Automatic annotation (TrEMBL):
Pfam families: Cytokin-bind, FAD_binding_4. GO terms for molecular function: cytokinin dehydrogenase activity; FAD binding. It comes from Rubroshorea leprosula. Its EC number is 1.5.99.12. Its cofactor is FAD. Keywords: FAD, Flavoprotein, Oxidoreductase, Signal. Residues 52-229 form the FAD-binding PCMH-type domain. It catalyses: N(6)-dimethylallyladenine + A + H2O = 3-methyl-2-butenal + adenine + AH2. This is cytokinin dehydrogenase. Belongs to the oxygen-dependent FAD-linked oxidoreductase family. Residues 1-18 form the signal peptide.
Length: 509
């Protein structure tokens, strides 16, 4: 009987909402922008993860920022407030940008663009619509010879989506995550209030929203500092069989004297190479070296690839090689196994695009992605290597996909923001970027659970990046000492829990 009642309630709620959506369209003047077209609903009901499906009642395709405020105000004042999820590109993997029985806002319908302003004495900035993809920001700013300094590996994701998480890549150790590189944001709160905020004005909202998983408001514009863009990059990969040597060298490279340190490299990442050559074969390695790499993998099980970049331009092109050699001097990679490339800055930043195109052409892009992204304190990274890389990942007979490992400096993050990181000066990010078939993603998910269980038992204080938790207890543990402020900010800015329910923090709609 209980189950039946629950079902009836869901049906009543859904039909109530359906009626409201059509009257909303009339009342609010949103017209065809608020769509119940099956194609729009279908596209809003899945994401890059292809693991979760949720069907909204309608999709808003806003033409103006005001359309978003109008919708939120009506949800807020509604007798049964309905849920709203901003969706950037939907490159989340666990339904974070989805909603059942509510409205998905397709942010990329906005066309607020990128406006560059400033001068060389006060500095340059870009005012960027949150719907913009990072590739759009790059292309628009490069026209002025300028660029932001902090990036993600992949550029076909929205500014609003990454600022709701953190936005990390190999530049983070030096320049901080993308959330540390924002001067000002426009936000529409869960009450429908439009506010411009900075670290000084409306600072509570500013810090709440950055890394806030979409819980406090919808970002519509971000002001991002720009610097003169480099023209080209020297891009180097070195191979290690010894994990301690690999992490020691990574940590040496990220220990710098501030972001202007011209004796520092500009980018540090790392990855695992194991299993068959399909997992690691890339244009980076000279095929003449394949057999030696394969024999090293056979001997050691895992080879670690350290990736470093130094930017340069016309003025520094004659000195960059020497500078780079100095920076890399004394590193303990396997002698002879250093590989080098020289590419344009844009090709380097947009490097994942070629991989995407290839996967798309093979029908392997729109498949389940049971990803797991973790932050791990430096003091525990050896334990993690032994317990997870060697004892779990290497031993199981499933393709592990790309596994990234690289360190960052805590002092480049702002603790007042909602983003959560380990409490150590240096911590690593490890990304298990898995792709699976539609019928076997659970096998990968089981391994993710095994990894998290191992960390818990070994008392490794991991924090999930792009987090996915299913219980309130796990969310409380995730936020730790920040939980109280997170809840207070929620009641301040989205008291009716309207926004981003797909994160599953305050409701599970
Ligand atoms: P969505 O998935 O659409 O949304 C994410 C969350 O943010 C949702 O909760 C949504 O409701 C909320 N949201 C979206 N827009 C707004 C807004 N304007 N205001 C408030 N809330 C909003 N991340 C990194 O940090 N570094 C990487 O190198 C990196 N590489 C990636 C590579 C690939 C191939 C993919 C698929 C993802 C990668 N990511 C990376 C993860 C990516 O940053 C997140 O998935 C991000 O959320 C994607 O942005 P999106 O625009 O698709 O957001």
């Amino acid at each position: 009987i209980q189950a039946l009642c629950a079902m009836i309630l869901i049906i009543i709620n859904r039909s109530t909402l359906a009626i409201d959506i059509s009257s909303l369209t009339l009342d609010l003047g949103l017209g065809e922008k608020l769509s119940t077209d099956p194609e729009a609903l279908e596209s809003a009901s899945h994401d890059y993860g292809h693991i979760v499906t949720k069907t909204p009642t309608a999709v808003l395709k806003p033409a103006f920022t005001d359309d978003i405020a109008t919708l939120i105000v009506s949800a807020y004042n509604h007798s049964t407030p309905f849920s709203i999820a901003a969706k950037g590109c939907g490159h989340s993997v666990r339904g974070q940008a989805m909603v059942n029985n509510g409205v998905v806002i397709s942010m990329t319908s906005l066309k607020n663009g990128v406006i560059v302003s400033g001068n060389s004495s006060s500095g340059f900035v870009a005012d960027v619509g949150s719907e913009q993809l990072w590739i759009d920001v790059l292309e628009a700013t490069l026209k002025h010879g300028l660029a932001p300094v902090s990036w993600t590996d992949y550029l076909h994701i929205t500014v609003g989506g990454t600022l709701s998480n953190a936005g990390i890549s190999g530049q983070t150790f030096r320049f901080g995550p993308q959330i540390s590189n924002v001067y000002e944001i426009d936000v529409i709160t869960g009450k429908g209030q439009f506010l411009t905020c900075t670290a000084k004005n409306n600072s509570e909202l500013f810090h709440a929203v950055l890394g806030g998983l979409g819980q406090f408001g919808i970002i519509t514009r971000a002001r991002i500092p720009l610097e003169p863009a480099p023209q080209r990059v020297k891009w180097v990969r070195m191979l290690y069989s010894d994990f301690s040597a690999f992490t020691r060298d990574q940590e040496r490279l990220i220990s710098i004297n501030g972001r202007k340190d011209d004796k520092a490299v500009d980018y540090v990442e790392g990855s695992l190479m194991m299993g068959s050559s399909e997992n690691w074969r890339s244009s980076f390695f000279d095929p003449a070296n394949y057999s030696i790499i394969i024999s090293l993998i056979t001997t050691h099980g895992i080879i670690y690839s350290l990736e470093v970049v130094k930017y340069y331009n016309d003025q520094t092109r004659f000195t960059v090689d020497e500078e780079l050699q100095l920076m890399l001097k004394g590193l303990n990679y396997i002698p002879g196994l250093m590989f080098e490339k020289d590419v344009s800055y844009i090709n380097f930043l947009n490097r994942v695009q070629a991989g995407e195109e290839e996967l798309r052409s093979q029908g392997l892009w729109e498949v389940p992605h049971p990803w797991l992204n973790l932050f791990i304190p430096k003091s525990q990274i050896e334990n993690f290597n032994d317990g997870v890389f060697r004892n779990i990942v290497l031993k199981r007979n499933i393709t592990s996909g790309l596994v990234l490992v690289y360190p960052m400096n805590r002092n480049k993050w702002d603790d007042r923001m909602s983003a959560v990181i380990p409490d150590e000066d240096v911590f690593y990010t490890v990304g298990f970027l898995r792709a699976s078939g539609f019928d076997n993603w659970k096998v990968f998910d089981d391994q993710n659970r095994e990894i998290l269980k191992f960390c818990e038992e070994a008392r490794i204080e991991v924090k999930q990046y792009l987090p996915h938790h299913t219980t309130k207890e796990d969310w409380m543990k995730h936020f730790g000492p920040k939980w109280k402020a997170f809840v207070e900010r929620k009641s301040m800015f989205d008291p009716k829990s309207i926004l981003s329910p797909g994160q599953g923090i305050f409701n599970s709609n």
